[in-house]
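Okay, is this right?
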Amino acid sequence: MSSKPSKDLETFDNPNPGRDYTIRIDVPEFTCLCPKTGQPDFATIHIEYIPSAKCVELKALKMYMWSFRDEGAFHEAVTNQILDDLVAVTEPNFMRITAEFYVRGGIYTTVVADHRNPDWSIPDIVTLP
Protein backbone atom coordinates (compact mmCIF):
# COMPACT_ATOMS: atom_id res chain seq x y z
CA MET A 1 0.00 0.00 0.00
CA SER A 2 1.50 3.33 -1.03
CA SER A 3 -0.51 5.46 1.39
CA LYS A 4 -1.03 5.05 5.10
CA PRO A 5 -2.78 6.94 7.88
CA SER A 6 -0.91 9.88 9.39
CA LYS A 7 -1.49 12.56 12.03
CA ASP A 8 0.72 14.96 10.03
CA LEU A 9 -1.38 17.81 8.69
CA GLU A 10 0.18 19.92 5.94
CA THR A 11 -0.72 23.43 4.82
CA PHE A 12 -0.08 25.79 1.95
CA ASP A 13 -0.11 29.57 1.78
CA ASN A 14 -3.54 31.14 1.40
CA PRO A 15 -3.62 32.43 -2.19
CA ASN A 16 -5.92 35.35 -1.19
CA PRO A 17 -5.01 36.34 2.39
CA GLY A 18 -6.50 39.84 2.00
CA ARG A 19 -10.03 38.49 1.43
CA ASP A 20 -12.41 36.68 3.75
CA TYR A 21 -13.78 33.62 1.98
CA THR A 22 -15.13 30.29 3.15
CA ILE A 23 -13.68 26.86 2.46
CA ARG A 24 -16.05 23.92 2.95
CA ILE A 25 -14.80 20.35 3.06
CA ASP A 26 -16.96 17.25 3.57
CA VAL A 27 -15.49 13.95 4.72
CA PRO A 28 -18.32 11.40 4.25
CA GLU A 29 -16.35 8.26 5.19
CA PHE A 30 -14.97 9.11 8.64
CA THR A 31 -14.66 6.15 11.01
CA CYS A 32 -13.42 5.64 14.53
CA LEU A 33 -14.16 3.04 17.20
CA CYS A 34 -16.59 3.23 20.09
CA PRO A 35 -14.37 3.38 23.20
CA LYS A 36 -16.90 1.27 25.14
CA THR A 37 -17.63 -1.56 22.69
CA GLY A 38 -14.85 -1.36 20.10
CA GLN A 39 -17.48 -1.32 17.34
CA PRO A 40 -16.99 1.09 14.43
CA ASP A 41 -18.66 4.49 14.45
CA PHE A 42 -19.31 6.16 11.09
CA ALA A 43 -19.70 9.88 10.48
CA THR A 44 -19.67 12.65 7.96
CA ILE A 45 -17.32 15.41 9.07
CA HIS A 46 -18.08 18.89 7.73
CA ILE A 47 -15.25 21.42 7.93
CA GLU A 48 -15.95 25.09 7.29
CA TYR A 49 -13.32 27.75 7.73
CA ILE A 50 -12.25 31.24 6.84
CA PRO A 51 -8.49 31.01 6.35
CA SER A 52 -5.94 33.52 7.50
CA ALA A 53 -2.41 32.80 6.23
CA LYS A 54 -2.65 29.00 5.72
CA CYS A 55 -5.02 26.47 4.13
CA VAL A 56 -5.08 22.75 4.89
CA GLU A 57 -3.72 20.45 2.17
CA LEU A 58 -6.38 17.89 1.18
CA LYS A 59 -4.31 14.72 0.73
CA ALA A 60 -2.74 15.21 4.18
CA LEU A 61 -6.25 15.84 5.56
CA LYS A 62 -7.43 12.57 4.03
CA MET A 63 -4.56 10.64 5.67
CA TYR A 64 -5.24 12.45 8.96
CA MET A 65 -8.94 11.47 8.92
CA TRP A 66 -7.97 7.90 8.08
CA SER A 67 -5.74 7.79 11.19
CA PHE A 68 -8.79 7.64 13.47
CA ARG A 69 -10.07 4.38 11.96
CA ASP A 70 -8.56 2.13 14.65
CA GLU A 71 -8.80 4.55 17.57
CA GLY A 72 -11.44 4.55 20.27
CA ALA A 73 -12.99 7.98 20.75
CA PHE A 74 -16.16 9.52 22.10
CA HIS A 75 -17.93 11.62 19.47
CA GLU A 76 -17.48 14.81 21.47
CA ALA A 77 -13.78 14.20 22.04
CA VAL A 78 -12.88 13.33 18.45
CA THR A 79 -14.77 16.34 17.06
CA ASN A 80 -12.92 18.71 19.37
CA GLN A 81 -9.58 17.00 18.66
CA ILE A 82 -10.07 17.48 14.92
CA LEU A 83 -10.86 21.15 15.50
CA ASP A 84 -7.86 21.65 17.79
CA ASP A 85 -5.47 19.93 15.38
CA LEU A 86 -6.69 21.87 12.33
CA VAL A 87 -6.62 25.19 14.20
CA ALA A 88 -3.07 24.47 15.39
CA VAL A 89 -1.73 24.15 11.83
CA THR A 90 -3.90 26.64 9.92
CA GLU A 91 -4.57 29.37 12.54
CA PRO A 92 -7.80 30.33 10.75
CA ASN A 93 -9.92 33.39 11.31
CA PHE A 94 -12.87 31.08 11.93
CA MET A 95 -13.39 27.33 11.84
CA ARG A 96 -16.38 25.09 12.51
CA ILE A 97 -16.37 21.29 12.63
CA THR A 98 -19.73 19.52 12.42
CA ALA A 99 -19.58 15.78 13.00
CA GLU A 100 -22.75 13.90 12.03
CA PHE A 101 -22.50 10.38 13.41
CA TYR A 102 -24.74 7.73 11.91
CA VAL A 103 -27.35 5.90 13.92
CA ARG A 104 -26.18 3.55 16.67
CA GLY A 105 -28.78 1.93 18.90
CA GLY A 106 -31.47 4.22 17.52
CA ILE A 107 -29.53 7.42 18.31
CA TYR A 108 -27.94 9.91 15.92
CA THR A 109 -25.31 12.26 17.35
CA THR A 110 -24.22 15.59 15.88
CA VAL A 111 -21.38 17.51 17.52
CA VAL A 112 -20.52 21.09 16.49
CA ALA A 113 -17.33 22.83 17.65
CA ASP A 114 -16.16 26.33 16.70
CA HIS A 115 -12.98 28.39 16.86
CA ARG A 116 -12.80 32.15 16.33
CA ASN A 117 -9.60 34.21 16.16
CA PRO A 118 -10.15 36.98 18.74
CA ASP A 119 -8.35 39.51 16.49
CA TRP A 120 -10.69 38.88 13.54
CA SER A 121 -13.87 40.87 12.87
CA ILE A 122 -16.87 39.23 11.32
CA PRO A 123 -17.59 40.86 7.94
CA ASP A 124 -20.89 42.66 7.45
CA ILE A 125 -23.59 40.56 5.82
CA VAL A 126 -24.41 41.75 2.33
CA THR A 127 -28.04 41.53 1.30
CA LEU A 128 -28.54 41.71 -2.44
CA PRO A 129 -31.73 43.26 -3.87
User: Anything to note?
Assistant: The chain has a mean pLDDT of 95. The chain has two helices and six strands.
